[in-house]
Amino acid sequence: MALRFGNVSSTLDLAARGKRTGFFGIAHSDNRLAFSTIQSPLAVISNGDGPTVLVCGGNHGDEYEGQIIARRLYETLSPDALSGRLILAPALNMPAVQDANRVSPLDGGNLNRSFLGAGFMGPTQDIAGFIATHLIPKADLAVDIHSGGRQTNYVDTAYFCLSADVVQNQQTHELAQVMGLPYTMVVPAGDASGDFDSAAHAAGCAMISCELGGEGKVTRLALERGWHAVLRLLAHQGVLTPAAKDRLGIAPAPETTFLDLGDDVVYLTAQSYGMIEPLVGLGDEVAVGQPVALLRDMYNMDLPPQVFTSPRTGVVSIQKTSPMVTPGDHICVLCPMLSTAQLATQMAKAAP
Ligand SMILES: [Zn+2]
């Protein structure tokens, strides 16, 4: 029986054992797509009784690491490597992927702001509804892999989205440690409405997302960090057999540094037009008062550059790709590091 939500449907059998691919199709009719369906690959590898893990990429169309990792999992794993099920969706928002852009060219929809979706309210809402209705509820763990896209560059970081559920927060905390990416950004509860994380949390599904580099390109380091982080998640979840774990050579998780993306985060934001000269690099630790960037007027060379300084200590966690800015553009984001005690306080605040 076909899975359907709005104008999105799939005939791929996600229940039967074995390994197969299909797609979910997005029926959309406009001048270019009057007589076709946009196909987004969907795959399943299943064997024995065990948990289901859903691994997704391409939520935003100009982020590539997740698209590669989900496809590489399909190429690498056979059913006998699993005790459970792996559902792979490498290109969640295929119209955006085809366009190599963050959001859908069909309706301007940002998939990661569109959950839980609404049927027949445009392709992006339909895709969100399909994922929330037919994929997330089948999963014990969902993994959504992002990167900075063309506009931004991130440190390689897990995204720990807090919820109002104490058990869920403990679970996500553990998953972030299992991933072992260099950083884990801690996002306050309610800050991520409409995203995949909150949709999974609402469904009672364990969830972790991440950001791997960006600037619309793929780096070997970010890709391999993401790959090993996902393998560790699969092993931790118990979906890989012991033999498969040995064969894949899964290394222990490096320690992750928790960063505050909540009350104490600093966005350095341009208030005028101009060109940025960065004075620090991604991942640098900056001190209070340290110059972080210069903003120069494009036309008047007599105007001294505006100096942006850091109002507090923190890690340069996100940087804008292009040096050209207009008022309101964030130049970079400085995230304070969280101690174990500070993280515990944040978790207690989210789920008292
Ligand atoms: Zn993204």
UniProtKB/TrEMBL annotation:
PANTHER family: BLL3975 PROTEIN. This is Succinylglutamate desuccinylase/Aspartoacylase catalytic domain-containing protein. The keyword Protein biosynthesis does not apply. Residues 49-236 form the Succinylglutamate desuccinylase/Aspartoacylase catalytic domain. It comes from Thioclava indica. GO terms for molecular function: hydrolase activity, acting on carbon-nitrogen (but not peptide) bonds, in linear amides; hydrolase activity, acting on ester bonds; metal ion binding. The keyword Methyltransferase does not apply. Keywords: Hydrolase, Metal-binding, Zinc.
